[in-house]
Write a structure and sequence with these properties.
The chain is α/β, with parallel strands linked by helices. Helix content is 35%, strand content 22%. The chain is built from eight helices and eleven strands. A hairpin with a 2-residue loop joins β4 and β5. The C terminus is likely disordered.
């Protein structure tokens, strides 16, 4: 049987209306549900702070043109690392170029103890990160086949593919190359079970509660047999 995958909330516990995505409350809730960690998005402010947000704007405010002081509701990367660095696997997605130096400095000062990956759709971001640090774990996010074709030529450790792109052959090919497969965004129990059977290394879901409810029993059985799982 393949090892149980990491269970990761997408932007926290995204489907829960009580906790907006990409917030401390949403991250807390994903972990309360039993996830191993979560994925979150980073953007940069005009004064070079790294804030957690998926979209380029907050209301009428453009993040890249605003100072940190104008965005008090957004967590920053340092907040996330301080709160979760000792208890969660972190998938840190860089939405834009220009964040590489700040991210590397932050994770160097406070390395996540349960593991992490710095991920992006942007090939240039991944190459810049690798040029600056040979040790940073990198993940290529893929939504289209044209993006997926790049994985074997890039200096990455993780292929983070949309569920429509993932089949057993991809999982086997990526593993044969010594890399790992994360699949997103998986929101139904049947697909969660199928990807687990194929041996993916992590499943990212909007529905963190369903993810844990579907896969945690099997994971607990595996951990009981082999000892504590390391992220």
């Amino acid at each position: 049987m393949p090892a149980p995958p990491l269970l990761l909330g997408h932007r926290g516990a995204r489907v829960c209306k009580c906790a907006p995505e990409n917030t401390i409350a949403s991250f807390d809730l994903a972990l309360e549900h039993g996830c191993d960690g979560f994925e979150f998005d980073l953007r940069g402010t005009a004064d070079r702070h790294l804030v957690v947000c998926h979209d380029p704007n907050v209301g009428r405010v453009t993040i890249s043109r605003a100072t940190r002081q104008r965005l008090p509701s957004l967590p920053c990367l340092e907040d996330v690392l301080a709160r979760y660095g000792g208890c969660a696997f972190l998938d840190v997605e860089l939405k834009v170029k220009g964040l590489e130096s700040g991210v590397l400095t932050a994770v160097r000062q406070r390395p996540p103890e349960r593991g992490y990956v710095v991920s992006s759709f942007l090939r240039t971001v991944l190459l810049e990160l690798k040029a600056r640090s040979a040790l940073v774990p990198l993940g290529l996010i893929c939504e289209r086949k044209s993006q997926l074709r790049l994985w074997s030529a890039l200096p990455i450790d993780y292929v983070i593919a949309h569920q429509s792109l993932v089949d057993r052959k991809l999982v086997d090919d990526v593993h044969a190359a010594g890399r790992k497969v994360f699949v997103w965004t998986v929101n139904d129990a049947k697909s969660m079970q199928r990807f687990t059977a194929w041996g993916v290394d992590a499943i990212i879901s909007d529905n963190s509660e369903l993810l844990v409810r579907t896969l945690q029993p099997a994971k607990q059985r595996k951990n009981t047999a082999s000892g504590p799982m390391q992220a």
